[in-house]
Every structure is written in structure tokens, then in C-alpha cells.
From TrEMBL:
PANTHER family to which the protein is assigned, alphabetical: TRANSMEMBRANE PROTEIN 199
InterPro entries: ATPase_Vma12 (IPR021013)
Membrane-protein topology: Multi-pass membrane protein
Species of origin: Gasterosteus aculeatus aculeatus
Transmembrane segments annotated in the record for this chain: 136-158, 170-189
One GO CC term on file: endoplasmic reticulum membrane
Keyword vocabulary terms for this entry: Endoplasmic reticulum, Membrane, Transmembrane, Transmembrane helix
One Pfam family named in its UniProt record: Vma12
One example of a Gene Ontology biological process annotation: vacuolar proton-transporting V-type ATPase complex assembly
Location relative to the cell: Endoplasmic reticulum membrane
Signal peptide: none
Protein's name according to its UniProt entry: Transmembrane protein 199
């Protein structure tokens, strides 16, 4: 908290004039304080108490200048705040608390992240089983399509010995492909029922 002014040149000049006057009846203590203040080099400070005493004297003596005029180019002197040394025990406790809070925050952020998990529901082993299952389904569908297309192609090519008309050959090939496709579906369904029935 401020308790003094850092005085400027105007204060120095006016107070020097006041001290040089022989007719001024400054109290001895005030005169000594002002002379000591003016005798300092560098930034000079005047306490609020000295400034109040000077103001009272100027009012009592009826001088033509006032304190606010003296302090016009002065500033409040704000002393540096000296921070007390920190207690090392307290600092250590604060560091532990900060580390614990940081770990809790990290755990909260990463609680649903697991290197062994792809999703919340399973591990990489589960994912591998699902991939193998998808691969089996894709292979089965591909096998079904290849079988039906091959049956169509064989029936179409073989029916040229029975039918000379292209329309009749296509119909015979479609019928043969449909029969093979239904048989393939029957086998597929039975296989899937067997797999689903396993524990």
C-alpha cells in the first residue's frame, strides 16, 4: 500500500524556495525532513505524514501555493511487495495434489480407451473372430454366385445340342441355374443351422 510520494522537479523547486526564505517559520523537524529529502539523489520520496505537515504549515502561513500544486508532477510511491518464502512442505503437498489431479483427469479422459479393444464390446480376438466370420460369409456368397453362373453357362452351352433356338437355350439355362441355385441355398441354410445350433 502506498505511504509516500515520489516527488518531481516542481516540488523540489518550490520547497527549495520555501527553505531559502528567511521569513518562513517552518517547524524544525519539518525543515530537517525536507532538507534531507532534497539532499537525496535519484528518485526522492516524501511520506504522507510529511506532506500533511507541510500542507498544514502552508495553510497556517497563508502561502500563495498549495500542496496539490507542489505534487502536480509527483507520483505515488508503491513499494515492491516482498513475497514471503514459500513453505517447502506446502509446495511438496501442492505438487502431489497437482500430480494426482492430472492423473485423475488423464484416467477420466482415457477410461474407455483400451489397446486390446476396438469397441466397448470386445477385444481384438473378438474382432478377429468377426472378421473370419465375415470372410466365410463372403466366400460362401461368392461360391454361390460362381456355382449359379457356371450352371447357367454349362446349361446354355450344352443345350445347343437339344435346341437350335436361342430363346429356348436361355430358358433351359435359367431353369438349370435356378435348380442348382436352390440346391446350393438348401445346403447353405442347413450348414448355417448347424453352425447356429453349436454352443
Amino acid at each position: 500500500m502506498a505511504s509516500a510520494f515520489t516527488v518531481g522537479d516542481k516540488f523540489r523547486n518550490k520547497v527549495t524556495q520555501l527553505l531559502e526564505r528567511t521569513d518562513s517559520c517552518l517547524p524544525e523537524r519539518l525543515r530537517e525532513e525536507l532538507q534531507e529529502t532534497l539532499g537525496k539523489t535519484g528518485p526522492t520520496t516524501v511520506s504522507f505524514r510529511t506532506a500533511r505537515t507541510l500542507k498544514r504549515h502552508l495553510q497556517d502561513e497563508g502561502h500563495p501555493f498549495y500542496l496539490h500544486e507542489l505534487l502536480e508532477d509527483s507520483m505515488l510511491h508503491l513499494p515492491e511487495v516482498v513475497k514471503p518464502p514459500r513453505n517447502p512442505v506446502l509446495v511438496a503437498r501442492l505438487e502431489k495434489i497437482k500430480a494426482r489431479l492430472a492423473n485423475e483427469e488423464y484416467s477420466r479422459i482415457t477410461r474407455n480407451v483400451n489397446t486390446q479393444e476396438v469397441s466397448r464390446g470386445g477385444t481384438l480376438a473378438d474382432f478377429g473372430r468377426e472378421v473370419r466370420s465375415v470372410k466365410a460369409v463372403v466366400a460362401t456368397v461368392f461360391n454361390f454366385l460362381v456355382t449359379v453362373v457356371a450352371a447357367f453357362a454349362c446349361s446354355y452351352m450344352g443345350s445347343q445340342y437339344l435346341f437350335t433356338d436361342t430363346g429356348a437355350r436361355v430358358i433351359a439355362a435359367v431353369i438349370a441355374a435356378s435348380v442348382v441355385g436352390l440346391a446350393e441355398l438348401y445346403v447353405l441354410v442347413r450348414t448355417m443351422e448347424g453352425e447356429l445350433g453349436e454352443p
